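Action item from last week, closing it out:
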Amino acid sequence: KAIVVKTAEGLSIPGYLTLPVGKEPKNLPAIVYPHGGPYARDHWGYDEVVQVMASRGYAVLQLNFRGSTGYGDDWLRAGWRGWGTVMHDDITSGARWLISEGIADPKRMCIVGWSYGGYAALIGVVKEPDLYRCAVSIAGVSDVTRLARDDSRFYGGRTAIRQTVGTNRKELAEVSPTKHADRIKVPVLLVHGEDDIQVLVDHSKVMARELERNKIRNELVLIKKA
Protein backbone atom coordinates (compact mmCIF):
# COMPACT_ATOMS: atom_id res chain seq x y z
CA LYS A 1 0.00 0.00 0.00
CA ALA A 2 1.03 3.62 -0.50
CA ILE A 3 2.23 5.31 2.67
CA VAL A 4 3.63 8.67 3.74
CA VAL A 5 6.37 8.97 6.34
CA LYS A 6 6.39 12.21 8.33
CA THR A 7 9.82 13.33 9.48
CA ALA A 8 10.62 15.27 12.65
CA GLU A 9 11.17 18.34 10.45
CA GLY A 10 7.65 18.04 9.02
CA LEU A 11 8.67 16.63 5.64
CA SER A 12 6.35 14.09 3.98
CA ILE A 13 8.19 11.23 2.26
CA PRO A 14 6.07 9.05 -0.06
CA GLY A 15 6.63 5.34 -0.36
CA TYR A 16 5.19 1.84 -0.33
CA LEU A 17 4.77 -0.76 2.39
CA THR A 18 4.41 -4.42 1.47
CA LEU A 19 3.24 -6.84 4.15
CA PRO A 20 3.36 -10.64 4.23
CA VAL A 21 0.00 -12.22 3.39
CA GLY A 22 -2.11 -13.02 6.42
CA LYS A 23 0.08 -11.12 8.89
CA GLU A 24 -0.99 -8.19 11.02
CA PRO A 25 1.29 -5.15 10.60
CA LYS A 26 2.60 -5.59 14.11
CA ASN A 27 6.07 -6.43 15.41
CA LEU A 28 7.19 -8.04 12.15
CA PRO A 29 10.71 -8.68 10.93
CA ALA A 30 11.29 -5.84 8.46
CA ILE A 31 13.46 -4.80 5.55
CA VAL A 32 14.15 -1.22 4.56
CA TYR A 33 14.70 -1.44 0.80
CA PRO A 34 15.95 1.85 -0.73
CA HIS A 35 15.93 2.00 -4.52
CA GLY A 36 18.94 2.34 -6.78
CA GLY A 37 19.72 5.22 -9.07
CA PRO A 38 19.52 7.14 -6.84
CA TYR A 39 17.85 9.45 -9.36
CA ALA A 40 15.05 6.98 -10.03
CA ARG A 41 12.00 5.92 -8.02
CA ASP A 42 9.97 3.01 -6.73
CA HIS A 43 6.59 2.43 -8.39
CA TRP A 44 3.27 0.99 -7.37
CA GLY A 45 3.05 -2.54 -8.74
CA TYR A 46 4.61 -5.96 -8.69
CA ASP A 47 8.27 -6.14 -7.68
CA GLU A 48 9.67 -9.66 -7.68
CA VAL A 49 12.40 -8.95 -5.10
CA VAL A 50 9.94 -7.30 -2.72
CA GLN A 51 7.54 -10.22 -3.15
CA VAL A 52 10.27 -12.76 -2.39
CA MET A 53 11.07 -10.95 0.86
CA ALA A 54 7.41 -10.52 1.82
CA SER A 55 6.74 -14.20 1.10
CA ARG A 56 9.38 -15.02 3.73
CA GLY A 57 7.47 -13.04 6.33
CA TYR A 58 9.13 -9.64 6.12
CA ALA A 59 7.46 -6.25 6.01
CA VAL A 60 9.22 -4.30 3.23
CA LEU A 61 9.48 -0.51 3.13
CA GLN A 62 10.33 1.36 -0.09
CA LEU A 63 10.74 5.14 0.13
CA ASN A 64 10.98 7.73 -2.62
CA PHE A 65 13.40 9.83 -0.61
CA ARG A 66 14.59 13.26 -1.70
CA GLY A 67 16.56 12.84 -4.92
CA SER A 68 13.97 10.46 -6.37
CA THR A 69 12.35 11.23 -9.71
CA GLY A 70 8.63 11.63 -10.31
CA TYR A 71 7.91 14.23 -7.62
CA GLY A 72 9.05 17.41 -9.33
CA ASP A 73 12.34 19.16 -9.92
CA ASP A 74 12.66 20.54 -6.39
CA TRP A 75 12.36 17.05 -4.86
CA LEU A 76 14.96 15.70 -7.29
CA ARG A 77 17.44 18.51 -6.76
CA ALA A 78 17.02 18.33 -2.97
CA GLY A 79 18.95 15.05 -3.08
CA TRP A 80 21.85 16.32 -5.17
CA ARG A 81 25.12 16.12 -3.24
CA GLY A 82 23.15 14.49 -0.44
CA TRP A 83 24.13 10.81 -0.78
CA GLY A 84 25.07 10.22 2.85
CA THR A 85 23.17 13.15 4.32
CA VAL A 86 19.77 14.21 2.97
CA MET A 87 18.88 10.90 1.32
CA HIS A 88 20.26 8.91 4.23
CA ASP A 89 18.23 11.00 6.67
CA ASP A 90 15.01 10.30 4.75
CA ILE A 91 15.69 6.55 4.68
CA THR A 92 16.48 6.59 8.40
CA SER A 93 13.19 8.41 9.07
CA GLY A 94 11.41 5.56 7.27
CA ALA A 95 13.14 2.93 9.39
CA ARG A 96 12.25 4.75 12.59
CA TRP A 97 8.67 5.18 11.34
CA LEU A 98 8.36 1.39 10.99
CA ILE A 99 9.34 1.05 14.64
CA SER A 100 7.23 3.93 15.97
CA GLU A 101 4.15 2.59 14.17
CA GLY A 102 4.70 -0.81 15.77
CA ILE A 103 5.07 -2.46 12.35
CA ALA A 104 8.68 -3.55 12.76
CA ASP A 105 10.34 -5.48 15.53
CA PRO A 106 13.39 -3.26 16.20
CA LYS A 107 15.43 -6.37 16.98
CA ARG A 108 14.69 -7.85 13.53
CA MET A 109 15.20 -5.08 10.99
CA CYS A 110 17.67 -5.13 8.09
CA ILE A 111 18.56 -2.68 5.31
CA VAL A 112 18.96 -4.09 1.79
CA GLY A 113 19.61 -2.47 -1.57
CA TRP A 114 21.08 -2.56 -5.09
CA SER A 115 23.52 -0.02 -6.56
CA TYR A 116 22.74 3.26 -4.75
CA GLY A 117 20.48 1.18 -2.52
CA GLY A 118 23.50 -0.96 -1.66
CA TYR A 119 25.39 2.20 -0.79
CA ALA A 120 22.42 3.30 1.34
CA ALA A 121 22.57 -0.03 3.19
CA LEU A 122 26.28 0.42 3.95
CA ILE A 123 26.11 4.08 4.98
CA GLY A 124 22.97 3.21 6.96
CA VAL A 125 24.86 0.84 9.25
CA VAL A 126 27.82 3.23 9.41
CA LYS A 127 25.76 6.19 10.56
CA GLU A 128 23.05 4.28 12.47
CA PRO A 129 25.02 1.39 14.01
CA ASP A 130 22.27 0.46 16.48
CA LEU A 131 19.25 0.74 14.17
CA TYR A 132 19.65 -2.34 11.96
CA ARG A 133 20.59 -5.94 12.70
CA CYS A 134 22.26 -6.52 9.31
CA ALA A 135 22.96 -4.95 5.92
CA VAL A 136 22.95 -6.36 2.38
CA SER A 137 24.68 -4.41 -0.39
CA ILE A 138 24.14 -5.76 -3.91
CA ALA A 139 26.37 -4.12 -6.56
CA GLY A 140 26.67 -1.28 -4.09
CA VAL A 141 28.87 1.80 -4.10
CA SER A 142 31.24 1.80 -1.14
CA ASP A 143 33.49 4.77 -1.92
CA VAL A 144 31.91 7.92 -3.36
CA THR A 145 35.31 9.35 -4.27
CA ARG A 146 36.04 6.21 -6.30
CA LEU A 147 32.60 6.49 -7.93
CA ALA A 148 33.37 10.04 -9.05
CA ARG A 149 36.56 8.76 -10.69
CA ASP A 150 34.85 5.70 -12.20
CA ASP A 151 31.99 7.67 -13.73
CA SER A 152 34.38 9.98 -15.57
CA ARG A 153 34.77 7.05 -18.02
CA PHE A 154 31.34 7.83 -19.45
CA TYR A 155 30.46 10.64 -21.85
CA GLY A 156 29.17 13.50 -19.69
CA GLY A 157 30.00 11.56 -16.55
CA ARG A 158 32.32 14.15 -15.09
CA THR A 159 29.71 16.89 -15.44
CA ALA A 160 26.97 14.70 -13.97
CA ILE A 161 29.10 13.75 -10.97
CA ARG A 162 30.01 17.38 -10.31
CA GLN A 163 26.32 18.26 -10.30
CA THR A 164 24.85 15.37 -8.33
CA VAL A 165 27.65 14.11 -6.07
CA GLY A 166 30.08 17.01 -5.80
CA THR A 167 33.86 17.26 -5.91
CA ASN A 168 34.87 18.10 -2.33
CA ARG A 169 37.11 15.14 -1.48
CA LYS A 170 36.81 15.66 2.28
CA GLU A 171 33.00 15.63 2.09
CA LEU A 172 33.00 12.60 -0.21
CA ALA A 173 35.30 10.71 2.13
CA GLU A 174 33.01 11.51 5.06
CA VAL A 175 30.09 9.73 3.33
CA SER A 176 32.13 6.80 1.95
CA PRO A 177 31.46 3.54 3.88
CA THR A 178 34.96 2.17 3.19
CA LYS A 179 36.41 5.03 5.24
CA HIS A 180 34.25 4.24 8.27
CA ALA A 181 33.97 0.45 8.40
CA ASP A 182 35.08 0.58 12.03
CA ARG A 183 31.71 2.12 12.98
CA ILE A 184 29.73 -0.89 11.74
CA LYS A 185 28.50 -3.31 14.42
CA VAL A 186 26.36 -5.77 12.44
CA PRO A 187 26.95 -8.50 9.82
CA VAL A 188 27.23 -7.34 6.20
CA LEU A 189 26.54 -9.33 3.03
CA LEU A 190 28.15 -8.02 -0.17
CA VAL A 191 27.03 -9.34 -3.57
CA HIS A 192 28.58 -8.14 -6.84
CA GLY A 193 28.86 -9.17 -10.47
CA GLU A 194 32.50 -9.42 -11.52
CA ASP A 195 31.77 -7.78 -14.90
CA ASP A 196 29.56 -4.94 -13.62
CA ILE A 197 30.41 -1.80 -15.61
CA GLN A 198 28.09 0.56 -13.74
CA VAL A 199 29.49 0.01 -10.24
CA LEU A 200 32.84 -1.72 -10.55
CA VAL A 201 33.36 -4.86 -8.46
CA ASP A 202 36.26 -3.22 -6.61
CA HIS A 203 33.70 -1.33 -4.54
CA SER A 204 32.60 -4.55 -2.85
CA LYS A 205 36.10 -6.06 -2.73
CA VAL A 206 37.56 -3.04 -0.95
CA MET A 207 34.58 -2.89 1.43
CA ALA A 208 35.08 -6.55 2.30
CA ARG A 209 38.76 -5.92 3.04
CA GLU A 210 37.91 -3.00 5.32
CA LEU A 211 35.32 -5.06 7.16
CA GLU A 212 37.83 -7.88 7.60
CA ARG A 213 40.46 -5.44 8.83
CA ASN A 214 38.02 -4.17 11.45
CA LYS A 215 36.89 -7.69 12.38
CA ILE A 216 33.30 -7.08 11.25
CA ARG A 217 31.43 -10.25 10.29
CA ASN A 218 30.89 -10.22 6.52
CA GLU A 219 30.49 -12.34 3.41
CA LEU A 220 31.45 -11.40 -0.15
CA VAL A 221 29.65 -13.21 -2.97
CA LEU A 222 31.10 -12.60 -6.46
CA ILE A 223 29.01 -13.58 -9.46
CA LYS A 224 30.93 -14.60 -12.57
CA LYS A 225 29.92 -13.28 -16.00
CA ALA A 226 27.55 -10.76 -14.48
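Closing note: The chain is about 35% helix and 20% strand.
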